[in-house]
Design goal:
Helices cover about 20% and strands about 25% of the residues. The chain is of the alpha/beta class. It is globular.
């Protein structure tokens, strides 16, 4: 092409380079078929610690960073993940976490009953050990009921562990759960002059746990992946230390507020001592709220197996809450078929259903 006094050809064409590179983008991701599978045992500030080649002579701990394409996918203790890169586990090495394997179970919670954001607690757990103290801090049936709902909804078997039974008789608390197929372990803490198994206490001294209670609990944990859940100060980490030989920091209870002091800042999976392969316990940070915004109200009633049969006589569309008319659960409880704790259990159910109702009203703009 001739323009003016100059001849132009293709060498004079200037093409602005693509800032994102010249190769077209694709949604296809590498399969990473050579990746090694590891179990996540803890997460800390963007670093994921995993055990690979578990229960073999090559077992080792590998620290990894999450691949960019997984940045929106939560990775939690208990997850099985695919690792590539440097998986030697040598000091100062970093592998790359490229895939989260399919989860068998997933324990979730929300900050409260109006928060639509789910918080993943742990993955692939077989059972949930709900830990409460008989006193100091005072136990709350509401917390136990919420944890039971979350466990049943996730397909995880629940277990109730009551500590500090020497401080207060837990019989009144336990009477609320006699009608449930719920294993209960009661433990005593007898102080430095007591009996049983040593475990580090809040003041750094040796606390003595009820040997029989620890052995009974261990019987449920052997061969399972279990997660310990409870408020701060109830003795979760002390029990974990006794079961694993670890030295998880433990904390006391604030004398003014009656609440436990947070000591564990992240969930940590630990192997049980003298236990079959695959026996893990995951200690979680103490929590003060356990929202159920992610659980459909229709599924909450199924977490109350002592009350659910009463719904057979409900009218269609009955919500079983405080506003329900001719609710079959009322008659079920009144007839004594839910046991002596039936009225208290029904009140707890309706508190949960009431918070769900408020959450839905807020979402629709009615509150």
């Amino acid at each position: 092409m001739v323009r003016g006094n100059r001849t132009w050809d293709e060498s004079d064409v200037r093409i602005r380079p693509n800032k994102r590179g010249s190769r077209p983008r694709t949604k296809e991701r590498p399969a990473h078929e050579d990746a090694v599978i590891g179990r996540i045992i803890t997460v800390d500030r963007g670093r994921y610690t995993a055990v690979v080649d578990e229960d073999t002579s090559q077992e080792r701990v590998v620290v990894a960073a999450r691949a960019r394409e997984l940045r929106r996918s939560p990775v939690v203790a208990g997850d099985f993940v695919a690792l590539v890169g440097d998986i030697t586990g040598e000091p100062d090495t970093l592998a790359r976490l490229v895939r989260i394997e399919e989860r068998r179970t997933l324990l979730r919670r929300s900050a409260d009953d109006t928060d639509p954001v789910e918080r993943v607690v742990v993955a692939n757990a077989d059972q949930l050990v709900i830990v409460v103290a008989a006193a100091n801090p005072e136990p709350r049936t509401g917390f136990i009921d919420r944890a039971l709902v979350a466990a049943y909804d996730a397909g995880i078997s629940p277990l109730l562990c009551v500590t500090k039974a020497d401080v207060k008789d837990p019989e009144e608390l336990l009477s609320n759960y006699r009608h449930l197929d719920l294993p209960v372990i009661v433990s005593r803490t007898a102080g430095t002059e007591g009996f049983g198994i040593d475990a580090r206490s809040a003041d750094g001294l040796s606390a003595r746990l009820d040997r029989d209670a620890v052995a009974e609990l261990k019987g449920y944990l052997d061969g399972m992946v279990s997660v310990m859940l409870g408020h701060s100060g109830v003795g979760k980490s002390t029990m974990v230390n006794a079961l694993t030989g670890a030295e998880r920091a433990t904390g006391g209870v604030n004398a003014v507020t009656g609440r436990g002091r947070h000591t564990s800042s992240s969930a940590l999976a630990l192997k049980l001592t003298d236990a079959p392969a695959g026996s893990w316990i995951i200690d979680t940070p103490g929590i003060r709220s356990f929202g159920l915004a992610h659980v459909d109200p229709d599924r909450i009633i199924s977490a109350f197996p002592d009350l659910e049969p009463g719904t057979a006589d409900c009218e269609r569309g009955c919500k079983h809450d405080d506003h329900a008319v001719n609710c079959g659960v009322d008659a079920w409880v009144a007839s004594g078929q839910a046991g002596e704790s039936g009225p208290a259990r029904l009140a707890s159910l309706r508190r949960l259903l009431g918070t769900e109702e408020r959450a839905q009203a807020k979402e629709l703009g009615f509150q």
